[in-house]
């Protein structure tokens, strides 16, 4: 009986409102990201972290030795749309609390899920090069945001996410895929334009939200533990699907949007509304 009560408490937390301060909203809109403390309890992270980790190791197909991998493959194990694989993972991904924060930060009426992805940076895993996520997405509006949820405290040696503050408004590097090349091009250009890089640890329960066009990266994991992270990508519920501009967007249009007609809204089956006012 006790386990049932505990689960009910966890589900209540996942759907309970989180008060987003006006300061946090203003910071997000100016800087393109925000970090928020105590968004999820240790109990929620432990319970759902175990479920997510089990799915990652069950579904992972990347088993090459680290020295044989590309830079992208060394960055993390990447497992997507866990919500369609497991009902308990879906409970976490469909958290109204996390979606409500995204809605408030963007100042929209509600959000749909684009997709989720677990990002596990193994011990000795390499850097995640500078990139902007929306390069990959055939979405017309910049009202997109990713929540980055470490499933453990994430000190610097684990490679926490770092952000180029205010970079969501610049046009540089919007045609560069994540690679050694993007790391060099963007590092040079972001430095040349004097962008401040915010690179700090994450406490347990702390999460970040970053806009689709905000440039970000992560350092290597030099610890002896995997850096376990779950992410969800949200879009304005009234987002419009645009003509894909590169081969990645063509693939995303098929995989995450089911090839809905250009100029239409995403559909509810693959991209349901998670939170709405």
Automatic annotation (TrEMBL):
Pfam hit, one? PhyH
Q: Does the keyword Repeat apply?
A: no
InterPro entries hit by this protein: Phytyl_CoA_dOase-like
Q: Which cofactor does it need?
A: Fe(2+)
Residue spans making up a coiled coil are: none
Q: Which SUPFAM superfamilies match?
A: Clavaminate synthase-like (SSF51197)
Record keywords: Dioxygenase, Oxidoreductase
The answer to whether keyword Oxidoreductase applies is yes
Task: Give any GO molecular function from the UniProt entry.
Answer: 2-oxoglutarate-dependent dioxygenase activity
Protein's UniProt name: Phytanoyl-CoA dioxygenase
């Amino acid at each position: 009986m006790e386990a049932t009560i505990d689960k009910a408490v966890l589900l209540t937390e996942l759907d309970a409102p989180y008060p987003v301060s006006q300061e946090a909203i203003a910071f997000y809109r100016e800087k393109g990201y925000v970090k928020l403390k105590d968004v999820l309890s240790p109990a929620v992270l432990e319970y759902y972290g175990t479920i997510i980790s089990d799915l990652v190791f069950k579904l992972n197909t990347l088993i090459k030795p680290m020295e044989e991998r590309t830079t992208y493959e060394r960055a993390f194990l990447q497992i997507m749309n866990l919500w369609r694989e497991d009902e308990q993972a879906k409970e976490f991904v469909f958290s109204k609390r996390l979606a409500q924060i995204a809605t408030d930060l963007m100042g929209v009426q509600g959000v749909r899920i684009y997709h989720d992805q677990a990002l596990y940076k193994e011990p000795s895993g390499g850097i995640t090069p500078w990139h902007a996520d929306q390069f990959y997405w055939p979405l017309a509006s910049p009202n997109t945001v990713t929540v980055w949820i470490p499933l453990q405290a994430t000190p610097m040696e684990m490679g926490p996410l770092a952000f180029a503050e205010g970079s969501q408004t610049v046009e540089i590097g919007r045609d560069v895929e994540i690679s050694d090349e993007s790391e060099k091009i963007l590092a040079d250009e972001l430095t040349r334009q004097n962008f401040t890089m915010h690179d700090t640890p994450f406490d347990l329960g702390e999460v970040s939200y970053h806009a689709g066009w905000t440039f970000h990266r992560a350092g290597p994991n030099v610890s002896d533990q995997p850096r376990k992270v779950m992410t969800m990508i949200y879009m304005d519920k009234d987002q419009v699907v645009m003509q894909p501009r590169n081969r990645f967007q063509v693939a995303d249009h098929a995989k995450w949007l089911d090839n809905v007609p250009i100029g239409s809204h995403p559909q509810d089956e693959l991209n349901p509304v998670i939170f709405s006012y």
